[in-house]
UniProtKB/TrEMBL annotation:
Molecular function via GO: ATP binding; phosphoprotein phosphatase activity; phosphorelay sensor kinase activity
Catalytic activity: ATP + protein L-histidine = ADP + protein N-phospho-L-histidine
Pfam families listed in its UniProt record: HATPase_c (PF02518), HisKA (PF00512)
Protein's name according to its UniProt entry: histidine kinase
Keyword Membrane: yes
Subcellular localization(s) per the UniProt record: Cell membrane
Keywords, sorted A to Z: ATP-binding, Cell membrane, Kinase, Membrane, Nucleotide-binding, Phosphoprotein, Transferase, Transmembrane, Transmembrane helix, Two-component regulatory system
EC number: 2.7.13.3
Amino acid sequence: MADMGGTEQRSTAQLVATRLWNSRWLLAAGIVAVLTVYGFADMTGYVVLLACAVLLFAAAMLPAGVARQPAKDAAAIEAGGLQQLSGEYLAAAVADPLIIFDRTATIVHANAAAFAAFGGIAPGMSLSLKFRAPEMQALLDSILSGAAASDVVDYTEKLPVERAYRVSASSVGHGTDFYVLVFKDQSEARRIDRMRADFIANASHELRTPLASISGFIETLRGPARNDPAAREQFLQIMQNQTGRMARLIDDLLSLSRLEMKPYLKPGTEVDLRQTLDSVIDSLGPLARENGVAIERDFAEGPLNVPGDRDELFQVFENLLENACKYGQSGGRVVVTISHSDDGPEPGIDVTIRDFGPGIPEEHIPRITERFYRVDVENSRTQKGTGLGLSIVKHILTRHNARLSIKSEVGKGAAFTVHLPAH
């Protein structure tokens, strides 16, 4: 009995101490108020002690939960707000396609993104009939049978446009008999992966071909042509050409890599197009004479300045003019034009490089700026092309907020126009 009495006394003491601690700020304010009154009024020390005792008693009797009331109120407000949010509102807030279904695999609700992605879905429709792919059927069976609380599969929607999704399924809460499907679009990531794989395959092929040629000639020089000066000189010249081809390819690959690492152009620098095009034409004069091509100028009057990087724009025009001299040499001339453009919302300057050679078939024009894409593979390699020049042009123009347009007619040549913003 004595132990029980001692335990009750300790419990009461702890309760009183807790109440005093929870009310410490209120108690301190009261004592300060009493002392202030004592300092300015005619109060005896006994009255002050009595007032402080009353404050202590009131604080000790204050319910312990009063101090925590604001926290309880906040929790109640939060719970009330969540109760007002329906599943429809929550589903609408999800950017990815989302479908809620029940134990019979019947659609209960689909958000706007799901309607846009799949179309023709509505509450009451069977998911098993809508998504008949084996992987989707296996996913639904796994979730509805209770074999897994959540599961993920890869799914491809074929129509109207092929899209690749990572689909996750899980139950909603506990004991609700509702489930949710979320479709995460992976199409762009898959496209980039394919581009990367194609790029590596193409680059490997372009490097492997000259390496195989060089290896074969080395083997010949060490064997049958060991004592044949004429053959040795011929083979060494071919080997030098092949190593030059590999060096050009590596330089172009490095240029593409640098451009992709810095996709945005630093503002503030202006380029004089007249001076830049004059420099490009002068640098390619020997190539033009070698191919029997005359380069003609048709530049507009007045200042022809645009914001940009001179070295990069020099590379753009050098690539385009070099292609015109090589592939349009049968036309005998190339015309370089600089003109003011008033098309579009903002004024700009157009630079057109036109040849009068065989031209480009229309079906090739949309893909001509793709990496390693060639209209004529053999002719391109004969002209020492790497298949990356127009890709570099496109990347540089994107950095300059500019664009490239191509017009061509078979037998009448091709015109490549660079549209540059003036400001």
